[in-house]
Write a structure and sequence with these properties.
By secondary structure, this protein is of the alpha/beta class. The strands form 2 sheets. It has an 11-stranded mixed β-sheet with strand order 10-1-6-5-9-8-7-4-3-12-13. The protein has a 3-stranded mixed β-sheet with strand order 11-2-14, with no helix packed on it. It has 5 helices and 14 strands. The protein is globular.
């Protein structure tokens, strides 16, 4: 086939290919015929799922006495006369957050023969809602059917200093933990190791605060007199506490309150502490500001064992917080 005109006729398959129209395939992520998108820009706007918040991004919710706070478990069960706002107590060290032993006389306050919390009302609130009761029990580390006994074994008092805790709100059908500072004067229920376990103003279960480094991001309503260096962390006792020596907030006198009692059996302590209640909570060693909750377990429940269980495991020695008049097993 040396002659240029001797070109063989196309086969039927070749003819079909030549007659088929060409289809335009647009570039990925771009309009037909348009420019290709900038891949770097797409990656820059893609959400990152491999990074969680660092320690410095810890949120700390400030909760005044009269505020229910976010996602309360129940209506308030605090009694009308239970929560006078306390003035800030001195921190002679001037640095860090103080750790105070739970048996320290004057750590808590109250009104003579008047509990700061209506425990039976709190029992009714929780047991009337199965979902809340289940979530409360999980956060408190108890069995759901033992909620009434658990609450009745706690002691109603009020905080005498702004106090760090792990709080729990009820959200989307479960307990959600968050770090919180409760204002002095807040009504709480404490267990037989001296730890706050329920905030009466909202029914939330409480636990020991979590350790965190860096400066927390403050949320909530800040009250007059709030200062980070006046916040305390409560260290639970190793032994079971049978009596608490608290301050009568009405007249700054001492009260001995039996553990688990609503105040009906209040009496003056047999041995008075060697300092005046008006002087505030005795000084205790300050923990470093960058680690204000050292000694708490990672899950925020360090040694906050309910009454029905065995005593809490041994931990670091309780910092000296001044002389103890009655102590965990003081005179009756």
């Amino acid at each position: 086939m040396n002659d240029l005109n001797d070109v063989p006729a196309p086969t039927s398959r070749q003819a079909a290919r030549r007659q088929a129209p060409r289809r335009h395939v647009p570039a990925p992520h771009g309009p037909p015929g348009g420019p290709r998108p900038d891949r770097r820009r797409l990656l820059r706007h893609r959400p990152r799922t491999d990074q969680g918040p660092g320690p410095e991004s810890l949120e700390l919710t400030l909760q005044p006495v009269g505020a229910a706070g976010p996602d309360p478990f129940t209506p308030s069960s605090a009694t009308a006369e239970s929560a006078p706002v306390q003035p800030p107590l001195p921190n002679a060290s001037g640095r860090g957050i103080r750790t105070v032993g739970a048996a320290t006389p004057g750590l808590y306050g109250g009104t003579s023969r008047l509990g700061s919390c209506d425990v039976e009302r709190q029992v009714a609130f929780l047991t009337s809602d199965a979902a809340k009761a289940r979530s409360f029990a999980q956060a408190a580390g108890i069995e759901q059917e033992k909620i009434p006994d658990f609450l009745r074994a706690l002691t109603p008092v009020v905080l005498r200093a702004d106090t760090r805790v792990t709080n729990h709100g009820f959200r989307d059908g479960r307990a959600e933990g968050y770090q919180s500072v409760l204002q002095a004067g807040t009504a709480v229920l404490v267990d037989d190791h001296g730890m706050p376990r329920v905030r009466c103003g909202c029914g939330n279960p409480l636990a020991a605060p979590r350790s965190a480094k860096g400066n927390p991001v403050l949320k909530g309503e800040q009250w007059n007199g709030y200062q980070p260096t006046q916040v305390i962390v409560i260290e639970p006792t190793i032994q079971v506490i049978k009596r608490l020596v608290i301050v009568n907030v009405a007249d700054n006198t001492w009260i001995e309150r039996k553990a688990g009692d609503d105040g009906a059996q209040d009496k003056p302590p047999r041995t008075l502490p060697p300092y005046d209640p008006a002087d505030g909570i005795p000084d205790a060693p300050a923990t470093p500001a960058e680690d204000p909750c050292a000694g708490a377990e990672a899950d925020g429940r360090a040694r906050t064992t309910p009454r029905s269980s065995s005593p809490p495991p041994a931990g670091p020695p309780i910092p000296s917080a001044g002389p103890s008049a009655a102590g965990p097993d003081g005179p009756p």
